[in-house]
Amino acid sequence: MPDVLITTGDPTMPSGNFNQENTSELGGMDMLKNLGSGIVDENWVAGGIRYIVENIKNERPDIFEVDDSYDPFDDEQLFKYKEYMGNFLHSKNKEHTTYLINRFREKSERIQGDPSYIIGRILGGLTDPSSLFMFTKAGSVLLSGTRLSRSLKMGTPLMAEEAMKRYLDQTRPMTESALITAGGFIIPTIFPTINANKSTRKFDKNADFLDAADNNIFGKNTMGAAQPIDSKIITEAEEQAMNKIQPTGLGVFGENVPTSLLSNPVFIVLQKGITSAQEMIESVLESPLYTIKNFQGIATKPSVERNVKLRYTPLVIDTTKKLESLYATYLNRLGKNKQNFVERTFDTKINRGEGVMSPKQFRESVWEARSGRKDLPEEAITASKELDGFFGKLGKEYDELGIVSSYIEREIDKINYWIRRTKNNDLMVSLQLEKKKLTERLNYINKNGSLAKNYITISYKRDKIKNNFTEFKKILTASLREKNPAITKTEIDEIADNFLNYQPYIRLNAVSGELDFAVNSGKNIPDGALMEHFKQVNKISSRFKSRELNIDYRALADAGFIEKDVSVLMRYYFNQVVPDIEITKVFGDPLAYGTRWQPDGTSQMGIKQIAEEYDAKINDLIISRKEMNTTEEVTKINKQVAKLQEDKTEILTNLDASIALIRGTYGLADDPNRSVSQGIRMFKLYNALTMLTGLSQVVDTARLVMINGVSKTFKMNFELMGSGMAKDITRMSKNTTQLGGEATDLWDSSRAMRMYDLGDSYGVYNKFEKGFSGVGNLYFTFINMTNPWNAGVKTIAGFYNGTRMLENIELLVLGKKLTKVNSARLNNLGIDDAMAKRIYKEYKKHGVGKNGGKSWKENKDSFKIIRVGNTEKWTDKKAADAFHSAIGKQSNIDIVTPTKGDVPLWANTEIGGVLSQFKKFGMAATQRMLMRGLQEKDANFMGGVLMLLGAGAMVDAYRGKAYDKDYSKKPFGQKVVDAFDRSGLGGIFSDINNSIERLGNNEIGLRPLLGAGKPYGTYKDLLNNPIPDVLGPTASQLSNIADIMYTWGTGKYNHHTARNVRRLLPFQNVWYMDSIFDDIEKGALR
């Protein structure tokens, strides 16, 4: 049973400095040892094992002989421990006292110096058999009955347990045991009875008390998180403190990680940035963690990242469904049957004759119809008009926001800035000429708009152009001369050559981006850098460039140089345009530099304004320095100035990077079509095909239970099945979740792409990559079934979350008691009091469920728990958007899905992506499962931990069969560690521990600490080198290939070689194909 820690201000351990270690200098092994020590100290089973081992080694204090003349009060060793004499009164002699002092100091240093020891004690207490018994049905008896009976039932076994722990560990502090025993008798008389119907509510209420304690202990600048802010005028420092992450208790292992190598943009800016910077990062990237203000009644702003996701279903999915429906109409008109399963799966036609278009040919005919061709099937013409709701709508929105002109305006502003600075005549001429071109282009757009009639994006196939450049140039030249008779050969050559470097997405040239950032950061730019910029200035946007050509694109399209599949073009265009639109809506310009910002509140401050704020703070310090009278005061100011300058650079870098992450351009190579970049993308997908099982996602089921708790989950499911509306409710929940930007996996493989770092490269794929990517989609959908699983569990999560959210909104609107955690959860999801009232109003009109507008019986109370929004009927669009956003964000948290801001910036680069592939899930899980759970500390989280461990154990047992291992013979310690590992609860900490174990030959790390052996499948290469395995799956596979070549060439072929050959085969690790590949592997050895 976990200890009851009572903090009185007079700790049970010495407050003095007993050569305490600096925790910042603790090594990984020290932390692991302290973690293990904490577990052993608080778990009587582990303590018993230590007792036996120490007896065998004659290391127990029992071996000390009793000295009848010895008096601890006369022992000089104990003079400075008079306040803690209760811990030494049982000493047998002077040597025994020395032993006890050393153990006492060790424990004191661990408690005061290393949080990993505290975490170990918590884990030890939670996994103690008596604690596990508390979570059983039989254990609930201890928490029922009168206050006196509960006191006796809890206090008596706790007193016996403490006596046992003191017998096993004689250095256990007497005062600590006394407090724990007293707490066991007293606390049950304070808190109400916990029964099956009210346990979660009571636990949450008590957790509020713990939250306040956490804020006092960990949150030095939290202003007292339990205090309402009402209309009080707060200082900037107080507002900055409120914007920080709600403490998790992990400290430097969590939100306050001290190095940017391990931190991410959200952590860095929220914990270090000024208020305007914090507000910007919150508005850009989505974070699963609570901020302090969420517990003070302030809602988190909706992020651009979530707003982009909100638009995917109504734009891409709904338009695609319309195209598919029109293709079915086309087949029906020709007297053909609907597509069968194989045709739909492989996007093809089978035995339909030459006169019938395939799905791809139909989609290409839609492009031709949009380009003006008339001799096409009527369904293709209709589909072309339907695309007005996609290309037309987005293009018009893009145009009305002035995004095209904003790019040009920004370039002109920079040129004017540089004209004022440069003294280089050649550069001045180039600047004036470029300014003239840009001004003419801006005037044309302002007069005519940037949107053509029947607009459709143009995407060139660079691999086709590169392989057939002569033919491409010939067609392009003819088209240019026809439309532009005065064009020169030099101009044609320049335009044609530019297509060799064509990119189908908008991204500023790298040099341009650096100059933008430098200008807005207040840095000086040398003339050489400006000249380099103007060598490539016309590459600001390949799409803008292509739209200026004034040519007939159909000739290039017919020759295969332009992509005509409108479903592919929709995805490309969405990725290009929607991020820019949503960023511009918030900041006024698509790069959030603040070039159009005005202090009227119409847009949020951008990077430029934040840089100016930092400069103002720095200047204020410099001015104050002049008034300093002493050297010490001047030195102090200088340090503050240096710190602010350092913070400014770090914060602005991360803000700039966050915008690039949203736009999909951060970390991309200058030329994503280069061979190295193509090889990296293909190898990462190959790793997914060869290594992923699909089985590990079973732990998602435990996460579903964590949403509601076991009891409520079963009740909701029974009510759903008995309502007669299960199909309709599931459909409504799926629709709501998809409108929230989640559960779209059957369309875009979104969760798999993020989990396994297989991002969409916006059309830079060549023909072979497209085919390979198609195999990947087939794999995730039909082989390891990741996509249907993800869509299913997120739909279920949306169902559970919708019920819980509407229940909490009802309590809030009606003025009933809402726990602090549930209130903070609504705020974290962006739902404040005003929005809650709007949502509840719509639910009362159109919702299905308890107190909703619709029920399955005439009796409106027939639903006892279930609440479904049925948002497709809502008339308040802002309320619907807020509800969809909240459902999407919470589903993303509950069913762990990485977002763009979860990982360090280096992990988003090409090389970083190779090293961190398959690790992004761990980073995301750490924040969504562990850190958020530590912020909430509610009953569902505590019960969910056990569910996760159980699910992890089940996965581990099944995976053991792949290695012919008998799970029943596995050491208990290894079962626990592997279950913890498979559960995902440890997140990135499990990944780090696994790397330490591999590098340490399984002699250091959590498993060896608990006496466990190697995990299944651990193997080193021919040089006995574990490093490739630690450097990511790509290095591991390359090492396997080298091992195979070496052993085959030298005749040293063995079972390890056979296993490595198997590891290179696609689908070999899929959970239900293990036995097939086992037979193949064994057959190769015969």
Structural notes for this entry:
By secondary structure, the protein is mainly alpha-helical. 61% of the residues lie in helices and 0% in strands. It contains 50 helices and two strands. It has a two-stranded antiparallel ribbon. α42 (920-936) crosses α45 and α49 packs across α50. The longest helix is centred in the middle third of the chain and has 33 residues, at 631-663. The radius of gyration is 32 Å and the shape is globular. The protein starts with 27 loop residues before the first helix and ends with a helix. Mean pLDDT is 78; it is low at 1-28, 190-231, 506-515 and 535-547.
Brief rundown of the structure:
With 1086 residues, the protein is an all-alpha fold. The relative contact order is 0.07.
